[in-house]
Amino acid sequence: MLSVVPDIDLLIPFIEHRGPTHSIITSLIIFVPIFAIYHKKATPYLIALIQHSLIGDYVAGGGSQLLWPITTQHFGTSLSIQSQTNITIEWVIFLTSMIIMLKTNDTAKLLQPHNSNLILSIPTFTVLLPTFLSFPLDVPAWLIVPHLVYMAIFVASITIDLHKNLKRPKEKNKTSKCKEALNDTKANNYHGKRNIAKELRKQKQE
């Protein structure tokens, strides 16, 4: 999930794309308190965050401001997204990620309702969906399949989470009604028992 967070700058008008949010220095500063609390356990999450800039944008994304705020220089290769080298790298990363997701059961986890799934709306609506809405396509034909697979998983994950959140108010209303009914039943039973006790006392007195 964290690997898609840097692209949030696409949703913020006054921040340059592949600027501050793609900086390794920014990521390290953000993770200082996280490492203070979780220590080594935070390492995979830091790697997930910075790999977006170090692998994706550095190789074929046109570079990014890796050392912002020290410098606004963009670091990256001049490799074209249409080049065979980039296509090969993207396929290797795609297949590797799919294997890891299937082995660790992460795919199944993504298809379960969780609020963090909404983070996937960042790449879905800023990168993946606009790619297929543009004509001609910016993505090479060989990379359409990985993009479609990612988009299908992300959209399904977002939809499941939204559906669960929309159902929550109804479930809460049902729960509150059930509690009210249960309380009324208990109250009726209590009063009923008191009435029975009164009748028994009257019968004894008579």
Question: Any overview of this molecule?
Answer:
With 206 residues, this protein is mostly helical. Helices cover 65% and strands 0% of the residues. It has six helices and no strands. The model has no long low-confidence stretch (mean pLDDT 79).
Q: Tell me the distance between the termini.
A: 77 Å
Mean pLDDT: 79
Low-pLDDT residue spans: none
Q: Sheet bearing the most strands, described?
A: none
The coarse overall form would be: elongated
What is the tally of beta strands?
A: 0
**Sheet/helix structural class:** mainly alpha
Number of helical regions: 6
The ordered H/E elements are HHHHHH
> In which range does the helix fraction lie?
55-70%
Strand residue percentage: under 5%
User: Radius of gyration in whole Å, from Cα?
Assistant: 28 Å
